[in-house]
Amino acid sequence: MRISFIGSGRVATHLAKVLSKQHQIVQIYSRNIAHAEKLAQLVNAEAIVNDQKLVADIDLLIIAVSDQSISQVIQAVGRYLENVLIVHTSGSTNLDVLTQYHAKSGVFYPLQTFSVEHEIAWGNTPLFVEAAFTDDQDILTQLANSLSNRVYQYSSEQRLSLHLAAVFACNFSNYCYDMAKQVVDSKQVDFSLLYPLILETANKVTQNDPRAMQTGPAIRGDLNILNMHEKMLEADEREDLKKIYHMLSQGIQTGQH
């Protein structure tokens, strides 16, 4: 396939790199020419900063930009790429954000966290596809199958539920790690001592129901420990962490009934 990208951030970079192994990446468009050139060089494509220079002789255009920019982008390019299948990579943006401006539209959403430093294990990464037309959905499914063993045809509503769940499972849990590090840093304790605990917890919830795996003073109803922890945070003048600790402890207790 001949594929072009709008966007040159983390999602675009990882997708373009893996797709370039089997397909031709034609153009990389970004408002920042340096970013466009950097990614284009990696995948042997042309870097452009003017969306009107996007060539129409392609099979697929992938919009990999922030959610709030998707509507603006499709309005800008959809009208002169009428026969091109255009997709976005968002987990939370409905398909109709594209279809109201461009008929041949779809979604190609990888459920993964992307960073510059780490390569993605694409074979195990869930990929979700959706399209306005059956033929286009078949094309996206075939493309997804070339990257991953876990491909799903989910609706926009289903995909949004996954995106919300991912915020809890990834973004919020990472924030909890950050708070944990703040607690031990304040007492000059090595955060790496928690690594085995973190990894074992993550491993357990991939094999069991998370609710059944809940441990700790809150689920045991150990009020002495709960009060001790809150008083420690209060003494350290961390009212913010105390509030979060109290809220999560209550959630654990009430959520089990």
TrEMBL record:
A single GO molecular function term of this UniProt record: oxidoreductase activity
Keywords: Oxidoreductase
Gene3D superfamilies linked: NAD(P)-binding Rossmann-like Domain, ProC-like, C-terminal domain
InterPro entries (alphabetical): 6-PGluconate_DH-like_C_sf (IPR008927), DUF2520 (IPR018931), NAD(P)-bd_dom_sf (IPR036291), P5C_Rdtase_cat_N (IPR028939), TM1727-like_C_sf (IPR037108)
Domain DUF2520: residue ranges: 126-250
Domain named Pyrroline-5-carboxylate reductase catalytic N-terminal: residues: 2-88
The protein, known as: DUF2520 domain-containing protein
Source organism of this protein record: Acinetobacter wuhouensis
Source taxonomy: Bacteria, Pseudomonadati, Pseudomonadota, Gammaproteobacteria, Moraxellales
